Amino acid sequence: MSLPHCEPKHLMANQPLGALLLYSTASMTQVLSIIHQQNLRADVISHQKVKEIPEAYKEMYKGNTNDFSYRQANLMIDNYSMITPVIYATTLFINHNLDPEIKSSLENTNIPIGKILEEREWEVHRKILDVSVMPAGMNESYSVVLQDQKDRVVRKIYQISSQRQPICIIAEHFSVHYLENVNKSWS
Question: What is the pTM of this model?
Answer without folding.
Answer: 0.83
